[in-house]
Amino acid sequence: MTSLAPEAKGAEKLVFSLEETVSLLERLRARGPRVHCITNSVAQNFTANVLLALGAVPSMTVAREEISDFVKSAEGFLVNIGTIDDERRAAIDLGLDAVEDAGLAFVLDPVLVNRSPARLKLAKSCMARRPAVVRANADEVAALSGGDTPEDFAKNAGVTLALTGAVDRVTDGRRAMDIASGHPLMARVTAMGCAASAVVAGFLCVEDDPLKAAAAALTVVGLAGEEAGERSQGPGSFVPAFLDALYRLGREGGAK
Ligand SMILES: Nc1ncnc2c1ncn2[C@@H]1O[C@H](COP(=O)(O)OP(=O)(O)OP(=O)(O)O)[C@@H](O)[C@H]1O
Ligand SMILES: Cc1ncsc1CCO
Ligand SMILES: [Mg+2]
């Protein structure tokens, strides 16, 4: 089962209850926020389905002539650098200009930033635009942080870090919390992390504190993952079971 037990070394424990997570989930479902995602070609479809299962309204365009309008009419925004081409590169720039104008909090997913200097440069240019939350796995955080602890990275960069893996850690440098929900099959399907980043962007629409938004998002993703893991036979059946579990989570009768 989920452990919300916070562990904090050099950071204050974040006490964030399951009830608070459920209440934010209800707010998200009631509000149905628009979340614009510039994301990679592998993750687009799954990410859109995950947001829809939660009750958010995804959009994904990267067209130069409309990206600013989409961002300005959205409540949440995600930049994911998993597959980069000229169109996405331009969209990231224009999208982040619009985010700045609109004062919107955004999430950065620096996919595979550990794999190429060009990607590291792009991720750092996105970091300079001050994401509210960076959601990444351990290899990606190591590349971005140059080996700093998660807390020091978050503090020095002025962001909330949502570091995922078998156990997730969320920290803003001052406060920290570990989230141990989830299932090993989550790492056996593509784009689970990418979709989790989009879910963080969704929760940022209903919670101003980025640390609480990230904690709630990863808790919800982890709980749905656990449920789906119990109900599926392998990666193939895990994906639809995960979408069903997200949809049903916390509703009457539980996620059954
Ligand atoms: N072994 C595991 N046990 C439990 N949960 C896991 C495990 N591996 C990953 N997860 C969960 O899966 C989600 C995605 O995390 P992960 O670190 O795998 O992202 P990622 O490497 O960025 O994935 P991708 O790039 O394929 O989208 C998180 O919610 C995380 O908690
Ligand atoms: C497989 C893959 N390659 C680039 S992005 C992506 C989706 C998971 O990050
Ligand atoms: Mg990833």
Automatic annotation (TrEMBL):
Its EC number is 2.7.1.50. GO terms for molecular function: ATP binding; hydroxyethylthiazole kinase activity; magnesium ion binding. It catalyses: 5-(2-hydroxyethyl)-4-methylthiazole + ATP = 4-methyl-5-(2-phosphooxyethyl)-thiazole + ADP + H(+). Keywords: ATP-binding, Kinase, Magnesium, Metal-binding, Nucleotide-binding, Thiamine biosynthesis, Transferase. Catalyzes the phosphorylation of the hydroxyl group of 4-methyl-5-beta-hydroxyethylthiazole (THZ). NCBIfam families: PRK09355.1. This is Hydroxyethylthiazole kinase. It comes from Stappia sediminis. The lineage of its organism: Bacteria, Pseudomonadati, Pseudomonadota, Alphaproteobacteria, Hyphomicrobiales.
